[in-house]
Amino acid sequence: MRVLAIDPGYGRCGVAIVERNGAKDVLIYSDCIETSAEDGFATRLRQVVLACETLVSAHAPDCIAMEKLFFAKNQKTAMRVAEVRGAILSLAGSTAIPVFEYSPGEVKSAAAGSGSADKTQVAKMLHALVKIGKVIKRDDEYDAIAIGVTHLALARSTAARRKAQKTVL
User: Fold this and answer.
1) What is the pTM for the complete model shown?
2) Known active-site residue 7
3) What's the rounded Cα separation, in Å, for the pair 33 and 61?
4) CA angle, 14 as apex, 46 and 147 as ends, to 5°?
5) What is the CATH number of the domain that holds 120?
6) N or C: which end of the chain has fewer CB within 10 A?
7) Would you call 104 exposed, middle or buried from its count of C-beta atoms within 10 A (0-12, 13-18, 19+)?
8) Residue 167 confidence (pLDDT) above 50
9) Which residues in the chain belong to E strands, given as ranges?
10) Options 67, 106, 141, 143, the catalytic residue
11) Residue 67, annotated ligand binder?
């Protein structure tokens, strides 16, 4: 299974292509899409969507995993991030790619074993779980990798539960 994982944002948007290869999760690609604050929001939104479209075309993911919106203190920022999420959902709909969403706590729990893990703990665990053969410069990129790892872990556990249920029946 190949996942396009996205930590949505319009100033910085973390993206990763993570794949289950045998018994190991493999990082195929990751980056942080950055847009200029000097550009209008519509331009920035289009840049993020174009980058995601390019990733879909280049890597043919089976699904998109995205972080659920977390309402912080800045409501204007939260609304803009919601708009980015909507644009990505539209892209997914137009390409018939299923979307899975995870809360920040679910991501931290799956990636680091604790829903209250900090960014340093998550990053350290990601290096233990996935071979990351490059320097990661932004937390947004780590967040996207963690979202991908979360989806792969939960997809495995769901498949295992289904298999166990079929065996019992």
Assistant:
1) 0.89
2) yes
3) 18
4) 125
5) 3.30.420.10
6) C
7) middle
8) no
9) 2-7, 12-21, 24-34, 63-67, 99-102, 130-131
10) 67
11) yes
Helix axes 119-129, 104-112, angle to 10 degrees: 50
- Is 39 assigned a catalytic role? no
106 is in an annotated binding site: no
Contacts of 3 (CB under 8 A, 6+ apart): 17, 18, 19, 61, 62, 63, 64, 65, 148, 151, 152
Q: Which residues contact 39 (CB under 8 A, 6 or more apart)?
A: 47
Number of folded domains in the chain? Answer: 1
| Residues paired with residue 130 on neighbouring β-strands, in sequence order | 25
* Secondary structure tally for the chain: helices H, strands E: 5, 6
Confirm whether residue 140 is marked as ligand binding: yes
Q: How does pLDDT run across 44-100, given as a tens digit for each residue?
A: 999 999 999 999 999 999 999 999 887 666 778 889 999 999 999 999 999 999 999
